[in-house]
């Protein structure tokens, strides 16, 4: 079965969703992960008008782009944010997404809550009826204090639902988790349901996430581990550049295009 490989629209942080969709399509990709991260990349949000969201849906259809996933980060440690995430699940269903991604804590913003794995698992378990209703998988991202596959596997096992898995971000585990990635993936590969392909350059704690193939992440090895275990989870490319960000839209488009060519060069079917 052909693996789904798309692009996270968060790669176009600071630019419009239309800019993102047109750049992703022009690069040759057929799939997009829409970003609905409140306070960061607000490409689509539940509070946007139905008319606007419908126009976005039609634009994707015109570009032959399939919205297969939504990046809907909320702080799942904070019970008060669960209603926001339920709305994100419903928004993802509106776009016919099969996957929704969230970190445990607040992505890109300061966490206001810290709690145990058991309490987090209880919060996530309360979302399962909505995931079941819409036939959607929640993939918890390696991020922040939950920056390794090993930590997230513990939470996924406590939740114990076929609707909840890990989104393994290949750069976050280095930036936040400082792991031996080969060993970390091998230890949680049976719980990985989604993967952000993100490269890493520079020092460990340096915000430097370039186009695929321009950093030091060994994607061929990572894909090899998944294939050995018959794990055909979807991939979503995420490019976050440096702290200064891309200099213009053309730089993002080039990085997305270069990532496409890199994946083709290592044997990925796109």
Q: In short, what is this structure?
A:
With 270 residues, this protein is α/β, with parallel strands linked by helices. It is 38% helix and 16% strand. It has a single domain, classed as TIM Barrel.
Features:
38% helix, TIM Barrel, single chain, 270 residues
User: Could you name the ranges where pLDDT drops below 50 across 5 or more consecutive residues?
Assistant: none
Main beta-sheet annotation: 8 strands, parallel, barrel
Structural class by secondary-structure content: alpha/beta
CATH topology: TIM Barrel
Q: What features would you describe in this structure?
A:
- There is one protein chain.
- This protein is an alpha/beta fold and 270 residues long.
- The protein has a single domain, classed as TIM Barrel (Alpha-Beta Barrel).
- 38% of the residues lie in helices and 16% in strands.
- The strands form two sheets. The chain has an eight-stranded parallel barrel, surrounded by four helices. The protein has a two-stranded antiparallel sheet with strand order 8-10.
- The longest helix is centred in the C-terminal third of the chain and has 17 residues, at 249-265.
């Amino acid at each position: 079965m052909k693996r789904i490989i798309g692009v996270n629209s968060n790669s176009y942080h600071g630019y419009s969703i239309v800019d993102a969709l047109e750049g992703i399509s022009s690069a040759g990709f057929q799939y997009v992960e829409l970003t609905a991260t409140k306070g960061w990349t607000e490409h689509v949000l539940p509070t946007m008008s139905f008319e606007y969201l419908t126009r976005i849906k039609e634009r994707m259809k015109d570009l032959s782009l399939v919205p297969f996933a939504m990046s809907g980060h909320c702080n799942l440690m904070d019970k008060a944010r669960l209603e926001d995430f339920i709305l994100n699940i419903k928004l993802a269903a509106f776009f016919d997404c099969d996957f929704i991604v969230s970190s445990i804590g607040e992505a890109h913003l300061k966490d206001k809550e810290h709690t145990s794995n058991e309490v987090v698992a209880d919060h996530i378990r309360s979302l399962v009826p909505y995931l079941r209703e819409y036939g959607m998988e929640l993939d918890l991202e390696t991020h922040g204090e939950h920056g390794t596959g090993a930590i997230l596997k513990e939470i996924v096992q406590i939740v114990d639902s076929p609707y909840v898995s890990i989104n393994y971000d290949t750069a976050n585990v280095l930036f936040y988790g400082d792991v031996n990635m080969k060993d970390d993936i091998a230890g949680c590969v049976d719980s990985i349901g989604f993967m952000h392909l993100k490269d890493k350059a520079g020092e460990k704690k340096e915000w430097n996430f370039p186009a695929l193939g321009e950093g030091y992440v060994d994607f061929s090895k990572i894909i090899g581990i998944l294939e050995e275990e018959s794990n055909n989870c979807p991939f979503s490319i995420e490019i976050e550049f440096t702290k200064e960000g891309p200099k213009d839209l053309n730089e993002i488009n080039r990085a997305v295009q270069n990532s496409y060519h890199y994946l083709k060069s290592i044997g990925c079917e796109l």
